[in-house]
Structure formats: structure tokens, C-alpha cells
């Protein structure tokens, strides 16, 4: 007979106010195998843990049941506690009598009854627990960072500075991302390029960083410490070794297309670098728009290239690499405005998005930093800024707040007043949200010192009227109807997850929320980790974020990577599936349901009388198995068991509840 | 106008929510509805204020509002509302409550100018009587 | 192709020309419009509350008849009827409770099997605007025409699913197929005041004034509509607008789109025959 100790936690009043601890203790004493019962106000405290250790020694306990909060909170802590007292850490069972009991019940009687039932269940399971042991796995001491915006750049630099090799994969021809497109940054108004470009150069020059641009992640296999990633190096049509970045090619290329970097406000060539400070400063040919690739004639760039670097024959290359950890930093897309016909975007050239405005104010932008109306090249006198376009709109856009628009709109209003003296900024808002250091003061400055007029009302419609725009709204605070005639309308466009975020999430076995932003492992306590060990998040791919938050998260992710890569080895999770070959029928139902590809078929040889027969059975790759248990349910003969959650244990739990 | 605790719990609002099938609490007062309403200039209580008054339980102000008879049910507002509030349904519910309580009609055939009776299409006449009379 | 045809009250009386030109052009295009037998008024307005269910009886009766007659599409012309039918049909498809009540009362089993379409949609999808353009024998070359959508074809956004609510194009595409010069103006979807012209005339008049001013400023010589009530309002309040605008123009004629179609297909002469 096992000697089981039961410890009940009050969790202050969280549990004790709803569950009758005395009564639960009395009931626990009568449960089979229980030889000791105690309670504590805060079991997770040092005193609480000491109590458990002492009781194990004093009462020769060999199994421990703790009735407390969810195992997601403190299971690791308590495993260490029992291990310190000389028990196998998997001899611990936690009965969740907080989240699943005291927090969801009001009535003390029923809550106590349920707590007793949960304890009885855990006791039944503990009585059948076996010792489990982790094995050691080696670690590939290299990191992959996906996405070369400010998040990816920061994470890569921090990991590289800690002494580990980093591959930084970027799908565009240059790193820099969204931040490279911006003019000034709030709340300090320092120039985005001035603070970003040095970091981009650092990346290029860092001995530990290997920059892989114009490339995408194709496939991810393996597990923490040992990922195998296939990267597609898209054919750049330019030999990176030979190219000197002189730029003769794009000066002469005859094919002009809208520049993505300039948000369509200027043209680029088919062979191009996205912007002058590009890193690497070497062009790529956009084959869809190249004359040679579309019509077979041209080759102008090849003729003019003094280095002979143009290579039309290049093919996409698939490269397989090994990594110990991965940081995802793929950024965001701006919201498509198809559902917002009321704002006349695309109907009138002077209705622009905030990112387009950003290019207009940018000294390196299409107007050299002059704010000019796209329709006639004249400076605007009156500009309406419409906030929340595509945000906070569950009917037509994103139901969530995009977080950055209030601040960048205040910035736009300030920049307008600086660049076009005498111009009027009208900011239409639903609420102004400025939580952040020095943010409220920045917003105050927009209306107090820079003359912006804030109007509390969502604009309902923009009517083009000749070369002007009529903006119809209401000021909800005064009740005055508003009809402004303006020269330009700037739409504060919402922040979306990347269009291909779900695809990437699938490759990485991480999850997304309803809007395709990657999910962190815990919204408060594990904000840069994902549910998949070894995969970390940085920046707006996890949710809308401004630059300070992005950089902070990127550095945090880097620390997580570094502490992982610094480990001697990794301990495997011992709660994995195990096949009993004697019972396995070889029908491989398990293989079909395993989401982690952890099951393979294998052939064993068996002697039948004289004959040796081959028989197919399932085999679990314990390194890949995440212990989800799907296979154990699919297996008809019951040949697969999940260690730590055996069929016997689960049935005992069910019996404990029902009988 | 004054907001008090018992007004906020007014029965009128419960009735309006039932009849309209709309949740007045969903509105976050962005006022997009008002900005686009083609006849707002003739209203005394603007569409977003109808929702606000309802949230605050200002029953008398709502029932005495001219707006109930001005809204053309054009559905411009609800086609743009970011909170999926069907504003004309809320207005219609108020109108129904009022017509029932008063028992009277806002429109009577005798009051229509002969010119209108003669020229207006059936569609218009039927619509008006369905809106304005019981 | 054969369609069940629901004319509605107004097309039989004040808007006779709407029906005549519809039937003439449909015939010319080889479309068979079979009038629903013993149809009744659709109620003119879709009920905007949770309590009134029985106004839906009449449209459902017609829809069920269309189905019994073996038609998969029921066509309407008047934007009011279209709005009521389209929304009723949607309710019959998606709201089991209302469906149960209506079917119980009518002793039918109608679940939205018939599609409600507008004649414009037939021209766009079943005939095809490119094909229509080929059939046009008298192109409306040089005619500056401003389409006026009004509300009922388009709104509510999530129920009608007729065209983009804010930037519809079907009318413009139709006019281009006839060879007309399409006048773009921002007020083409602003409400004309609807039934306010029965009880609050000055409100409707102002709404109409804005639409006409906008169309006029952008060079419109005629407005084209799909709704008898829009037509009535736009015509009735032209006088005030002309005075206010100080416009010398004798007014902007308001036409049903089928009138232009009949003209372009050159089937209008048949009127008198
Ligand atoms: S548009 Fe909708 S959310 Fe905004 S004020 Fe009107 S009802 Fe409220
Ligand atoms: S439905 Fe009524 S409140 Fe809404 S926009 Fe139209 S007239 Fe105004």
C-alpha cells in the first residue's frame, strides 16, 4: 500500500472562503492510502514547501497530493519540492481546487463537495503513478530569426552579442521593415532612419549574424534545441558575390512599377533595392515585372552591370539548416480598405493612408519631405485625420484597437503644423488612447501647441467635391454637426496580422488568435514564449505594438533564446506515449491522429514456430512526442499509454468520481 | 435633462430592446451614424444621442423627440455602424411604443395634400402609413 | 430563361411605363417574365422590429408560388419590392422560428429555395453587359446620365448583398453597356427622403435638393432610377431646387432604367402598337 500525503492550500481566501478546508481534510483522511493530511495558508510559499518536505520525511510519504491552484501555475515548483525530499518528481499530483472549483462556485456546500471529489481523484491517480525519468538531449547552439524589421534586427543583435550564431531571414531584398518607411517616431520625434540605419549596418557587419534576404521559411521540423528548417532562397537574379551595389542597373532598367516601399506614391524599377539605405545594398529582379522575364527581350541590366553580376538563370534554392531556437518577428500588414468606400480612398487621390502620409513627410520620400497633395502637388491648407479606420469595427474591420494610431496621428498633426505653417489639422476620433511614457504629453502638445483640432466623432462619409473633399461628421461633445471642406484626408489605417501568418503558424506548430496574431504561451507571465518550446515571438506579429514595445519584446525574446542556448543539454519531457508492442495490431490509427508527426511505423521480426515473420508496429519518437495523448484514444487494442497519464490511472480517476 | 439611478433601469429601454432586437449597450458613441444621416439636420435628437439617451434611460426625452418621425429608415447609419447597432430598428421600436401608448396616429389621410394623394406612388403612401400609423 | 415576375402595386398604376418598358425589353432580350398569379402588395417596407411577422406572409406567398411554378428566380423591378422580397427571403432561409410561423400559417414549406433578383442583376449576370452592349441598336452616345441608386437596392449592407454599398457599380456598368456617358457624382447613394415626402415634405425636398445639385454640378442631363418613390421625390421637388440653384436648366428628367434600355434596344416604338 502506498503512503499518500494530502496537502490543502487555502490560497489566502481564494480557496478557503468557498471550500470548507476542515471538512475536506476530514474526508481526505478516510481516502484509501492516505496516511497524512495537512493544510497551509499559502502552500507555494517557502514555509508551505518546507511543511511538505518535512512531512515526507516524518511520515515516510511516497506519494504527494496537493489541493491548490491549477498545475499550470505551480506544478514545476511542487515537483522540485518533492524531489528535494527524495521522491521522484512525478510522484506529485495536483488537484485543481481553485480555478476548477472555488473560483467557479458560489455555494460553499457544493464547492466543498467538489473539492473532496477532486482530491479523491488525485489520490486515486497518485496511488498508481510510476517514477518517470527525463533523458538528456543535445542542443544546436544557433538561432533563427524570421523577419528583418526592427523586432528581428534587435533580437538578432542581442543573440549575436551574447555569442551565438544567428541566421536572419527576410523575405524582401532588404532588412528594415516598417520602421524604415517611417519618418519621425513618437513621442520623441527622432528620425526613424537615423536610429534604425545604424542597427541595420550592425546586423550586416556582425560576425555572428548571417543575413539571408529575399528568402522565406519553407518547412520546420524537429523540436526545441534541434529544429531543422528548410529555407527558400528566392532567385534574386543578381550574384551577391559579384555585385558591388553601384546601382547602374536600376538607373537604366526600362520597366517601372509602383514602389511598395513608397506605398505606390513613387515608382521603382523591375531591378531594384527597396530604398537607398538598403541592407544589403544589392538589388533583386522582380521577375513578374521584368521585361526580359515577361517578354524575352531586354537584358539592359546585364549590359550595363560593370561587375557582370546579373544572372537570369538563377533558381530558387532550398537550404536546410539546424537551429536550437527560433524567433518569429514577421510584423504586420496594414488593413485593406475595401470595406470603407465611404472614405473615397482610391476614388480621390487626396485621400491617403497614414503610411502613405508617412512617406510624404519623409525627407527621403517621393516629395523630398514636403507635404503635398497627390492631386496637384500643392501643399494642403486643411487636413482631416480620421482615426480608427478598420479598427474597433466589428461590422466591417477589426474589432480590436490597433494601439498605435492615436499616437501616430498626433505625430502627423504635429508634423503637419511644422512642415506646412498655417495648415489646419482636424483629428476625428472615437477615444484618444495614450498610455505610455510621455505619450499623453505628446498628445497634449498636438492640440495645445500645434493647433490640432480634435473632434469627437467618427467620420461617416467623405464626398469628393471638385478638387476638394467634404468631410461629414458630428462633434459628439457639443452636438454640433460637422461639415469640413478639406484638401486632404488621412486615414489612420488599422493593423492586421500578416496575410500568411496562419501558414507560418502551421509550419511552426504555434497557434494564432482569431485575427491571426501569434499566441503567446501566457498573456501575462510568458509573453514572448509560444506553446511550442523553443519558438519565441517578437513585435507586431504577436499583436499590434509600437516601436518601444517591439524592441523590448525582441530583447526579451533574445534573452529567452540565449538562456536556452546556454544550457548544457535539455531534459526531455518524460510524459510521452509508449507502445506496448505485444498489444499493437499495427493498424497505425495512432499515426493518423498524431499532430506532431511523432509516430512512425516499424517492422519487427517474430518467430512463429519455425518461421520468422515480419510484423508492423507503431513506434514513438519521444523527442517529438508532446504528450497530448491523441494516440492513446485512437488505439483500439489499447496498446499506447501516455506515461504519467496511463489508461489505468485515468480509469481510476473516473472511478473515483463516479463510484 | 437629468440622469438618475432609477431612470437607468427604466422599463422603456427594456421594451425598446425587446421590440427592436437591438442591444443599446453595444453602442460606444462614435457618432458615425449621425455624421452620415441624410436628414439629421431636421432632427432634434441625433441618432447617436438616441442610443445615448437610451443607455441613460432618458425615456421622456426619447418619446418626445421629433427624430422618431424624421428618420427615413434609409439604413445608411446601420450599414456603417462599427458596433452593429441597427439604429432605425431602435427608432422604430420607440415609435411603436409611442403609437401604442398614445393610440393615436401621426399621419391621417385627411391631412395629406390632394397633390400628394394624387401623384405619390402607392409604394410611398403604403410606407408612410405603415410607419406613422397603427 | 423563365422568371417569375412580381410587378408590385406601383408598376400597375403610377409607374406603368416602368412595367411596359420592362416587359418590352425582356421580350426583346429573350427573357420570359411570367407574372405571379394573384400576387398581393408586398407591404412596401420590411418590418424593422421583432414583433411583426405577418407582413412577410404576402411576399412568401408569391415566392412559394414562384417555386410551385418551377422557377428558380423571382424578378422584381421596384426597389421597394426588391428590398422587401430580398430580406424576406433571407429571413426564410436563416430564421427557423419565423419560417415555422409563416409556413404554418400558409401551409407551405418554403425555405428560400427561390432566388430574388432585380432586373438589373439579370442584365448583368444572366444576359451579361458585354452581350447586352452588342444587342444595343441605338447607342445612347453623348447622353450624360447620372445613375441614382437610392437606399433600398443596397441597404442594409449585410442583408441586401446587391452591390458594394458605398461604391456600387452596377448602374454605371449598365449605362456604359448602352453607350451612355456616365456622370459620376458623390450623392448617388444618399437618401432622397423616402416616405418623408408624405408627411415631412420640407425634409424630403432638402434631401432631394442636395442630390440634384450634386448631379447637376457634375454635368448630369438626366437621372436614372429603379424606384418609383425616388422618381417621385426627385421630380416633385425639382422646382424648389431650380429656384435655389438659380439653374436655368428646365429641370433634370428622371427616368427608369428600363426606359433607357427600351430606347437603346429600339423597342420603344411598340408602345403605341
Ligand atoms: S454608429 Fe453605432 S456605435 Fe457609433 S454612435 Fe452610432 S449607434 Fe453608436
Ligand atoms: S436610418 Fe434614420 S437615423 Fe439612420 S441614417 Fe437613415 S434617416 Fe438617419
Task: Write out key terms for the chains shown.
heterotrimer, B: 134 residues, mainly alpha, Fumarate Reductase Iron-sulfur Protein, Chain B, domain 2, 2 domains, 53% helix, 0% strand, globular, C: 273 residues, alpha/beta, Glutathione S-transferase Yfyf (Class Pi), Chain A, domain 2, Rossmann fold, four-stranded parallel β-sheet, 13 helices, binds iron/sulfur cluster
Q: Rg of chain A, please? A: 31 Å
Q: Helix count of chain A?
A: 18
Shape of chain A: globular
The CATH topology annotation of the largest domain in chain A reads as FAD/NAD(P)-binding domain
* Gyration radius over CA of chain C: 19 Å
Total DSSP E strands of chain A: 34
In CATH, the homologous superfamily of the largest domain in chain A goes by the name: FAD/NAD(P)-binding domain
Q: Structural class, from helix and strand content of chain C?
A: alpha/beta
Q: Determine the CATH topology of the largest domain in chain C.
A: Rossmann fold
Q: How would you characterize the overall build of this protein?
A:
The complex is a heterotrimer of chains A (659), B (134) and C (273). Chain A is built from 18 helices and 34 strands. Chain A is α/β, with parallel strands linked by helices and 659 residues long. Chain A has five domains: 4-126, Rossmann fold (3-Layer(aba) Sandwich); 136-233 and 316-331 and 498-568, 3-Layer(bba) Sandwich (FAD/NAD(P)-binding domain), CATH 3.50.50; 235-314, 2-Layer Sandwich (Alpha-Beta Plaits); 335-495, FAD/NAD(P)-binding domain (3-Layer(bba) Sandwich), CATH 3.50.50.60; 577-643, Alpha-Beta Plaits, CATH 3.30.70. In chain A, the strands form twelve sheets. A five-stranded parallel beta sheet of chain A has the order 10-7-6-18-29. In chain A, helix 12 (405-419) links the parallel strand 21 and strand 22 (424-429). The model of chain A has no long low-confidence stretch (mean pLDDT 96). The model of chain B has no long low-confidence stretch (mean pLDDT 91). Chain B contains nine helices and no strands. With 134 residues, chain B is mainly alpha-helical. In chain B, helix 2 (11-20) crosses helix 7 (87-102). Chain B has helices spanning 5-8, 11-20, 32-36, 47-56, 59-63, 67-70, 87-102, 114-119, 122-132. Chain C has 273 residues and is an alpha/beta fold. Chain C is 48% helix and 11% strand. Chain C has 13 helices and eight strands. Chain C has helices at 9-12, 16-28, 57-68, 79-94, 96-106, 119-135, 157-160, 170-177, 196-199, 201-217, 228-236, 238-245, 257-265; strands spanning 2-6, 32-35, 73-76, 115-118, 144-147, 181-182, 222-225, 254-256. The longest helix of chain C is centred in the middle third of the chain and has 17 residues, at 119-135. Chains in contact: A-B, A-C, B-C. Chain A binds chain B through residues 342, 388, 392-397, 430, 456-461, 472-474, 476, 479, 481-482, and chain B through 28-37, 40-41, 46, 48-49, 76-77, 80-84. Bound molecules: iron/sulfur cluster (2 copies). Residues 33, 37, 39, 47, 71-77, 87-88 of chain B line the site of one iron/sulfur cluster.
Amino acid at each position: 500500500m502506498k503512503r499518500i500525503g494530502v496537502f490543502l492550500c487555502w490560497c489566502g481566501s481564494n480557496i478557503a472562503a468557498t471550500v470548507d478546508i476542515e471538512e475536506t481534510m476530514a474526508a481526505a483522511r478516510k481516502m484509501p492510502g492516505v496516511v497524512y493530511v495537512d493544510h497551509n495558508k499559502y502552500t507555494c510559499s517557502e514555509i508551505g514547501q518546507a511543511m511538505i518536505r518535512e512531512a515526507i520525511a516524518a511520515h515516510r510519504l511516497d506519494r504527494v497530493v496537493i489541493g491548490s491552484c491549477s498545475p499550470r501555475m505551480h506544478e514545476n515548483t511542487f515537483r522540485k519540492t518533492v524531489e528535494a525530499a527524495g521522491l521522484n518528481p512525478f510522484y506529485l499530483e495536483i488537484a485543481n481546487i481553485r480555478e476548477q472549483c472555488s473560483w467557479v462556485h458560489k455555494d460553499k456546500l457544493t464547492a466543498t463537495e467538489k473539492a473532496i471529489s477532486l482530491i479523491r481523484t488525485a489520490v486515486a491517480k497518485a496511488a498508481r503513478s510510476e517514477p518517470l525519468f527525463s533523458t538528456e538531449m543535445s542542443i544546436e547552439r544557433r538561432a533563427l530569426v524570421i523577419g528583418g524589421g526592427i523586432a528581428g534586427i534587435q533580437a538578432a543583435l542581442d543573440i549575436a552579442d551574447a555569442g551565438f550564431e544567428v541566421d536572419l531571414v527576410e523575405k524582401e531584398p532588404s532588412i528594415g521593415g516598417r520602421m524604415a518607411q517611417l519618418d519621425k517616431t513618437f513621442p520623441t520625434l527622432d528620425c526613424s532612419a537615423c536610429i534604425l540605419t545604424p542597427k541595420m549596418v550592425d546586423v550586416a557587419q556582425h560576425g555572428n549574424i548571417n543575413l539571408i534576404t529575399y528568402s522565406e521559411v519553407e518547412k520546420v521540423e524537429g523540436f526545441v534545441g534541434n529544429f531543422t528548417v528548410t529555407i527558400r532562397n528566392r532567385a534574386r537574379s543578381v550574384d551577391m558575390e559579384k555585385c558591388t551595389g553601384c546601382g547602374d542597373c536600376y538607373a537604366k532598367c526600362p520597366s517601372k512599377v509602383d514602389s511598395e516601399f513608397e506605398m505606390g506614391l513613387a515608382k521603382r524599377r523591375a531591378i531594384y533595392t527597396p530604398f537607398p539605405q538598403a541592407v544589403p545594398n544589392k538589388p533583386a529582379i522582380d521577375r513578374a515585372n521584368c521585361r526580359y522575364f515577361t517578354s524575352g527581350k531586354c537584358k539592359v541590366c546585364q549590359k550595363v552591370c560593370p561587375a557582370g553580376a546579373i544572372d537570369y538563370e538563377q533558381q530558387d534554392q532550398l537550404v536546410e539548416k539546424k537551429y536550437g531556437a527560433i524567433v518569429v518577428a514577421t510584423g504586420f500588414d496594414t488593413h485593406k480598405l475595401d470595406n470603407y468606400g465611404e472614405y473615397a480612398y482610391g476614388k480621390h487621390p487626396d485621400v491617403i493612408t497614414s503610411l502613405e502620409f508617412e512617406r510624404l513627410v519623409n525627407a527621403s520620400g517621393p516629395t523630398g519631405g514636403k507635404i503635398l497633395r497627390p492631386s496637384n502637388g500643392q501643399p494642403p491648407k486643411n487636413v482631416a485625420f480620421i482615426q480608427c479606420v478598420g479598427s474597433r469595427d466589428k461590422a466591417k474591420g477589426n474589432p480590436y484597437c490597433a494601439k498605435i494610431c492615436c499616437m501616430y496621428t498626433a505625430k502627423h498633426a504635429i508634423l503637419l503644423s511644422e512642415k506646412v505653417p498655417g495648415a489646419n489639422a482636424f483629428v476625428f476620433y472615437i477615444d484618444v488612447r495614450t498610455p505610455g511614457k510621455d505619450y499623453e504629453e505628446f498628445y497634449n502638445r498636438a492640440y495645445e501647441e500645434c493647433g490640432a483640432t480634435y473632434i469627437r466623432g467618427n467620420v461617416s462619409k467623405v464626398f469628393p467635391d471638385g478638387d476638394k473633399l467634404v468631410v461629414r461628421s458630428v462633434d459628439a461633445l457639443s452636438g454640433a454637426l460637422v461639415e469640413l471642406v478639406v484638401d486632404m484626408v488621412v486615414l489612420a489605417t488599422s493593423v492586421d496580422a500578416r496575410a500568411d501568418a496562419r501558414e507560418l503558424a502551421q509550419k511552426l506548430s504555434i497557434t494564432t488568435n482569431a485575427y491571426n496574431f501569434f499566441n503567446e504561451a501566457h498573456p501575462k507571465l510568458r509573453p514572448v514564449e509560444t506553446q511550442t518550446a523553443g519558438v519565441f515571438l517578437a513585435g507586431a506579429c504577436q499583436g499590434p505594438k509600437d516601436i518601444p514595445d517591439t524592441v523590448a519584446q525582441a530583447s526579451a525574446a533574445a534573452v529567452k533564446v540565449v538562456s536556452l542556448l546556454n544550457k548544457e543539454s535539455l531534459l526531455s519531457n518524460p510524459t510521452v506515449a509508449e507502445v506496448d508492442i505485444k498489444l499493437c495490431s499495427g493498424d497505425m490509427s495512432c499515426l493518423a491522429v498524431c499532430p506532431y508527426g511523432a509516430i512512425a511505423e516499424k517492422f519487427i521480426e517474430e518467430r512463429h514456430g519455425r518461421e520468422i515473420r515480419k510484423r508492423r508496429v507503431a513506434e514513438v519518437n519521444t523527442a517529438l512526442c508532446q504528450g497530448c495523448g491523441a494516440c492513446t484514444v485512437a488505439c483500439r487494442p489499447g496498446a499506447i499509454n501516455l506515461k504519467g497519464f496511463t489508461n489505468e490511472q485515468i480509469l481510476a480517476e473516473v472511478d473515483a468520481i463516479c463510484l | 435633462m437629468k440622469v438618475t439611478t432609477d431612470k437607468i433601469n427604466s422599463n422603456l429601454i427594456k421594451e425598446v430592446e425587446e421590440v427592436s432586437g437591438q442591444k443599446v449597450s453595444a453602442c460606444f458613441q462614435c457618432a458615425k451614424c449621425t455624421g452620415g444621416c441624410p436628414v439629421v439636420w431636421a432632427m432634434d435628437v441625433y441618432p447617436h444621442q438616441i442610443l445615448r439617451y437610451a443607455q441613460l434611460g432618458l425615456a421622456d426625452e426619447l418619446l418626445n423627440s421629433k427624430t422618431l418621425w424624421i428618420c427615413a429608415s434609409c439604413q445608411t447609419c446601420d450599414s456603417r455602424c462599427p458596433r452593429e447597432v441597427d439604429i432605425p430598428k431602435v427608432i422604430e421600436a420607440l415609435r411603436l411604443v409611442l403609437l401604442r401608448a398614445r393610440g393615436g396616429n401621426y399621419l391621417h389621410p385627411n391631412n395629406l395634400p390632394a397633390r400628394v394623394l394624387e401623384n405619390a406612388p402607392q409604394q410611398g403612401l403604403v410606407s408612410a402609413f405603415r410607419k406613422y400609423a397603427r | 430563361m423563365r422568371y417569375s415576375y412580381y410587378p408590385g402595386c406601383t408598376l400597375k398604376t403610377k409607374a406603368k411605363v416602368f412595367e411596359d418598358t420592362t416587359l418590352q425589353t425582356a421580350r426583346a432580350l429573350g427573357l420570359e417574365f411570367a407574372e405571379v398569379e394573384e400576387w398581393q402588395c408586398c407591404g412596401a417596407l420590411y418590418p424593422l422590429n421583432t414583433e411583426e411577422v405577418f407582413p412577410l406572409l404576402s411576399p412568401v406567398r408569391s415566392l412559394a408560388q414562384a417555386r410551385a411554378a418551377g422557377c428558380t428566380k423571382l424578378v422584381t423591378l421596384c426597389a421597394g419590392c426588391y428590398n422587401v422580397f430580398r430580406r424576406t427571403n433571407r429571413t426564410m432561409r436563416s430564421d427557423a422560428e419565423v419560417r415555422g410561423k409563416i409556413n404554418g400559417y400558409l401551409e407551405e414549406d418554403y425555405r428560400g429555395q427561390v432566388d430574388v433578383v432585380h432586373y438589373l442583376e439579370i442584365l448583368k449576370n444572366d444576359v451579361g453587359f458585354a452581350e447586352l452592349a452588342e444587342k444595343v441598336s441605338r447607342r445612347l452616345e453623348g447622353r450624360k446620365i447620372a445613375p441614382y441608386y437610392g437606399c433600398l437596392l443596397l441597404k442594409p449592407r449585410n442583408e441586401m448583398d446587391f452591390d458594394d454599398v458605398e461604391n456600387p457599380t452596377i448602374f454605371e456598368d449598365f449605362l456604359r453597356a448602352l453607350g451612355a456617358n456616365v456622370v459620376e457624382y458623390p450623392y448617388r447613394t444618399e437618401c432622397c427622403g423616402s416616405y418623408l415626402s408624405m408627411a415631412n415634405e420640407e425634409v424630403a425636398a432638402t434631401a432631394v435638393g442636395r442630390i440634384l445639385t450634386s448631379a447637376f454640378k457634375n454635368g448630369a442631363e438626366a437621372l436614372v432610377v429603379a424606384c418609383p418613390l425616388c422618381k417621385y421625390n426627385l421630380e416633385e421637388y425639382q422646382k424648389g431646387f431650380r429656384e435655389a440653384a438659380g439653374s436655368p436648366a428646365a429641370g433634370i428628367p428622371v427616368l427608369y432604367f428600363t426606359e433607357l434600355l427600351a430606347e437603346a434596344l429600339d423597342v420603344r416604338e411598340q408602345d403605341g402598337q
